[in-house]
Predict the structure.
Amino acid sequence: MNKIKVYQAENEPVLGYKKGSKERQNVEKTYNQMFNSKVDVPIYIGGKEILTESRKDILPPHDHKNIVGTFSQASEKHVNDAINNLIENKNDWSNTPWERRCEIFLKAADLLSKKYRAIITAGTMIGQSKNIFQAEIDAACEFIDFLRFNVSYLTEIYNEQPIDGPGKSNHLEYRALEGFVYAVTPFNFTAIGGNLCASAALMGNVVLWKPSDNQIYTAKITMDIFKEAGLPDGVINLVTGDPEMISDIALRHPEFSGLHFTGSTSVFRDLWKKIGNNISLYRDYPRIVGETGGKDFIFCHPSAEIDASATAIIRGAFEFQGQKCSAASRIYIPESISNELINKVVEETKTIKMGSPIDFNNFMTAVIHESAFNRIASYIDYAKNSKECKILHGGNYDDSIGYFVEPTIILTTNHQFKTMQEEIFGPVVTLYVYDDASWKEMLDIVDKTSDYALTGAFISKNEDSIEYALEKLKYSAGNFYVNDKPSGAVVGQQPFGGCRASGTDDKAGSKLNLLRWVSPRLVSRTHSPPTNYPYEYMD
Ligand code: NAD
């Protein structure tokens, strides 16, 4: 077997959107056009785009009275039709030469990089209330990187071949899974929505995509891009509607071969249980890949630098309103620097502006929807009523125009306080001050405080302490950052995923993830087969 040329991907440069720049003007114009018009999002089955009678409104979280569109609600029949259509198309797609599959997704990356960049970025600002920078690094750069780097990983995987034996040549054929893959995706990253379907489809699978109700606006743009890039109809079918109904049908189907999930831990556990209960219905043992919640920490060692720590805390906790699975939400601060560091965090947080994403002065905008707003508010109220903490900044929330929650800093005297343990998924960070001398024992507490193990950061100028923490916190985080915030993973540089209650750690944005979407077949050819059965030792 000749080796195939490995595609060398490079990270998409992040645009600056400075005042007066062309990219900024483009996004502003596109945002205003989209914000003041309406789009009806269909469900996609094969070549058909079906607008159902039953619809729901699409509402920007920062201005929830301005309807920017509707999305369709699939019936049970639609879901069954979508799956049957995928199965009909399965062989054609998995037999499509890999070079062609790669070309399609590389073209999609180019469309995202140029023609659709302003559209998907503005769509992410409107539909998910990201500021321009957060929208750019997600919907443009990370999405493009996923598509290009996955092509690179595919070529690496296909090159991984066994050695030949005497008189034998051996080959691993990286077949797609035999049935269909079910992709269930969260609201908070346009790139994750696209990648969870595209990664499996690139490897030759057909995919049923159920995006979050709160990412539908950009899910439609993603489908438009895939189509324009040449993805055949019925390779990715998109259905929206009741998530339990859709999942129950998909997970009862004998041809269900894999779940590609990102979202909350409770939903993932529920889906896993259903798969377990249905196991005898399936032809395959399904692949289950899930990246779920987090309770991500920053640990400041006594040698930690104040400015670097404060920046990591503020960016880590409040970017995208704390709605990243990797958001820093429990912070451990040594007593010796606590006054200075906490003061700096509070004073800088006071300068944060919050409002609509189209006002580029705003660092923060609204949280995603009413139930998220209520959940976050309930944690803030709990803190307000507790004797074990005080609120150093923030604590207010207002949903009259959009779902706005002030960046909130809680200082607790109990390292097991509720907001140190549970995922809040909002702009709320809890600080705990420890005695410098006990920093090593504190690491045990960091490790045991939460069920999650997604990301964590250790800030220190002392190399020995870093080595110690790496060992002590070995299983506390799937992504461990030294001297930085625990969020902001870049495809190709920091493959992403956590363990324990945070997921299966299959590392999105790496070869490891793509390996879950293939079922390798070994083909061994013997050139001169033996012609009698006895072995030499029998002579
Ligand atoms: P969510 O769990 O509410 O929704 C995720 C998906 O599951 C959506 O498509 C939703 O419609 C679907 N869903 C909801 N209830 C369902 C049910 N009963 N049956 C079947 N499907 C159901 O999560 P979200 O609010 O969209 O996203 C936030 C969560 O995702 C957070 O917990 C966050 O930590 C996690 N997340 C994790 C990562 C990671 O890489 N680890 C990345 C992004 C988000």
